[in-house]
Amino acid sequence: MSTPVRPGFSEALRLWLKIGCLGFGGPSGQIALLHRETVEERRWVGEEEFARALKFCMLLPGPEAQQLATWIGWRLHGIRGGIAAGSLFVIPAALLLWALGLLYVMGRDLPAVHGFFEGIKPVVVALVFSALWKIGRRMISSIALGVIALAAFGLFLLEASYPWTVVAFGLLGALFLKGSETVTEAVPVGRGTAAPMLIIPALWVLPVLSLALWLGWSSIPVRVALLYAKAAVLSFGGAYAALSCVAFHASGDWGWLTPGQMLDGIGLAETTPGPLLIALQFVAFVAAWNHPGALPAVVSATIASLMAVWSLFLPSFLWIFSLAPHMERIAANRRMAGALSVIGAVVTAVIAKLALWFAASLFFPATSGGFVVRWVSLAMAVAAWLLLRSGRLGMIPVIFLGGVAGVLLKLAGAA
Predict the structure, then answer these.
(1) Residue 14, Cβ neighbours under 10 Å: how many?
(2) What backbone phi and psi angles, to 5 degrees, belong to 366?
(3) In the chain, at which end, N or C, are there fewer CB atoms within 10 A of the end residue's CB?
(4) At 378, phi and psi to the nearest 5?
(5) What are the pLDDT tens digits along the chain (415 aa)?
């Protein structure tokens, strides 16, 4: 086995920026890119160590690819390395999506732009159903977990709280699903653990309190910070869990933006580098643009974007810096395994509700006389699903095909 190579900090910094700019393809593509660059080509991390770290990051809430990059940076250069790797994984995507959000709100009345986004909506619905299929196959591995997923789905249809449902089912899993197994020794709070657990939450609180004193607790940027922090610490199962948690508030009972605009944000995030969770930055931008309060719309939207990124990704640094020294014991804890397996089933249920909610709003919109069926959008979604399942085209080409089809239909005057 070859000995891992320790790079200089500036060399690592260049790689983290490269990965942040080229990290297309969602978590799978980003993890593959990290593996190729840090394990295969540069030998900075060993194969087995990379695999253990990936398993550890998949246990945590939040974007596992960004957390894996943070862990590699921490492994190589300590806390400064983790901050550099995790930040540069997100910053290029955040800047790009801010610019795309500005173009979106300023140009969505143009026929070609409107047609493009109408065309990508059915593709995004197909992507959500595809993600549901993949996540469900991985998460629901037994009849018991299938029953739990159905029960959680029923609770979500009855408007049960997502955080409380996750916590309640997680506790049941920890107590009963793996209760007969030997429990590994609890993770101690030591020198490398206590400081991040105190400092990082304090760092999150300071700008939120400052904004609340300036704009008020009811302003969109402050509410974004609070909602997104809750979503970030409970988003077991990846980005779609967090998207589900936010969507039912932002596009549902709070009315910040429409389900169609949520679909536009997911489509943009899927075609840009960085974690899919960055779609929620777009949601915050459009919500604050629609409800700017006393501020100019672009200022309100920009502040909301910053608070979205701050609240969504700061917890990743907390998990890595405080828990990575105890990675082996956390990954081996049997009660945690039981809790996470049940939470995985609950996550599948909330993503199923999200998929059905998006499909109903797009394909069967309500009208004064009941509802109509949008056959063209439904046919485009089925075509996108078949293309994605066939593997002949990647996700980004399928999204752009949908956008081009939408432009052509719009220019041709098709409904």
Answers:
(1) 12
(2) -75, 145
(3) N
(4) -65, -45
(5) 566 788 999 999 999 999 999 887 677 778 888 998 999 889 999 888 888 788 788 778 888 889 999 999 999 999 999 999 999 999 999 999 999 999 888 876 678 877 888 888 898 888 888 878 887 887 788 888 899 999 999 998 888 887 788 888 888 888 877 644 444 444 444 445 678 888 999 999 999 999 999 999 999 999 999 999 988 887 776 777 788 888 878 887 788 988 888 888 888 888 788 888 899 999 999 999 999 999 999 999 999 999 999 999 999 999 999 988 887 777 677 777 788 788 888 888 888 888 888 888 889 887 766 778 889 999 999 999 998 888 777 778 888 899 899 999 888 876 5
Q: Are 21 and 92 in contact (CB under 8 A)?
A: yes
Say whether both 68 and 118 belong to one domain: no
Side chain identity, residue 120: I
Structure tokens belonging to residue 108: 């969505």
Q: Determine which helix (DSSP H) or strand (DSSP E) holds 366, and give its type and residue range.
A: strand 366-367
Q: Which two tokens stand for residue 188?
A: 């101690």
Q: Which of 71, 89, 107 is the last residue of a domain?
A: 89
Q: What global pTM score does this model have?
A: 0.80
Structure tokens at 173: 């899993």
Rounded Cα distance between 53 and 82, Å, is 14
Within this chain, do residues 242 and 358 fall inside the same structural domain, yes or no? Answer: yes
- The residue whose two tokens read 């700008």 is 207
Q: Which two tokens stand for residue 237?
A: 């199962």
Tell me: do 274 and 168 sit in the same domain.
Answer: yes
